[in-house]
């Protein structure tokens, strides 16, 4: 896997390259004409609460359980490992889509951007399936909106 996807070997999450928020007690020092932040302040700026970074473990466990036989058990360690992996994967794909939007001077990441990012990152097979799902989702949502916003709001049954 490492040879085909060398970018996937990096264990450092992409979001650690970004400076999230700032503190009122911002520590800076002048060093040879450069502004240098304290290492502690840099770490504080980059830290994100774990619950904000990870998908809820109950949801991850439920998804894992859905694919397993009914009598299968999943250890806490397995759930936590999967939680880290899927959360990192989502951050990775979303970061790529966000970069595309930024270059195109757009503020909103949409489903097409996610499909593009997945294909761009080498997940072509998944991107194709996701694109099919996205198109079907849009059709269903369009039908739902047409049924609701037709004459007189929601369609009523002949009995009412």
What is the strand and helix layout of this fold?
Blueprint: E1 28-31, E2 34-37, H1 39-46, H2 50-53, H3 57-67, H4 76-103, H5 111-120, H6 124-148
Antiparallel strand pairs: 1-2
Helix pairs in contact: 3-4, 4-5, 5-6
What this model shows, in words?
The protein has 160 residues and is mainly α. It has 6 helices and 2 strands, in the order ββαααααα. The protein has a two-stranded antiparallel ribbon. α5 (111-120) runs antiparallel to α6. The radius of gyration is 22 Å and the shape is extended. GO terms for molecular function: DNA binding. Residues 54-118 form the Transcription factor CBF/NF-Y/archaeal histone domain. This is Nuclear transcription factor Y subunit B-5. Keywords: Activator, DNA-binding, Nucleus, Transcription, Transcription regulation.
Task: Estimate the mean pLDDT confidence.
Answer: 77
> pLDDT below 50 for ≥5 consecutive residues: which ranges?
1-33
Query: Reading side by side through the largest sheet, how are the strands ordered?
Result: 1-2
In percent, how helical is the residue content? 40-55%
- Helix run count: 6
